[in-house]
UniProtKB/TrEMBL annotation:
Residues 27-46 are annotated as: Disordered. This is SRPBCC family protein. CDD domains: SRPBCC_7 (cd07825). InterPro entries: Polyketide_cyclase/dehydratase (IPR019587), START-like_dom_sf (IPR023393). Gene3D superfamilies: 3.30.530.20.
Length: 149
């Protein structure tokens, strides 16, 4: 194992309440709208995440299905999941969103991709390519939706 950086993060203040932003993140059907990696195609509607331990399915643009295992959840503030191939255990990477309200109409949004525990050599190239710039792209797209009146 090398000493390479295995955690990417980006943040931005969004001019919208944390509750509105969190709804966009916690509803898998909305995620393709703001995905800065252009990797997500669709998810079933009506399956909003409400707790750690839940699993939500997502179809990728390649047609593959991912099962996302929710490992952290605090309503309106934090959500994190570990993706896995259908029927498999997560291979060791995690996506996290943290929201810090700043008054009634502004929120600091922190997006993290952590692949510290990822050992699958076939996934390492893509993991290395998931930089802060890509995370920032997701935050920017999320902001464009959340800031609409």
């Amino acid at each position: 194992m090398s000493d390479e950086q295995r955690i990417s993060t980006a943040s931005r203040r969004i001019a919208a309440p944390a509750e509105r932003i969190f709804e966009l993140i916690a509803d898998p059907a909305r995620q393709p709208e703001w995905d800065g990696n252009d990797n997500l195609s669709q998810a079933p509607s009506g399956r909003r995440v409400t707790a750690a331990g839940e699993v939500f399915a997502m179809t990728l643009t390649t047609g593959a299905l991912r099962e996302n295992h929710v490992v952290e959840f605090e309503e309106g503030r934090r959500i994190a999941w570990k993706p896995a191939e259908e029927g498999s255990e997560p291979p060791g990477h995690l996506w996290r969103w943290e929201l810090e309200p700043d008054g009634d109409a502004s929120t600091l949004v922190i997006h993290t991709y952590d692949w510290t525990d990822l050992q699958d050599p076939q996934r390492l190239v893509r993991a290395r390519a998931t930089t802060s710039d890509r995370l920032r792209s997701s935050i920017d797209r999320l902001a464009a939706i959340a800031e609409k009146p």
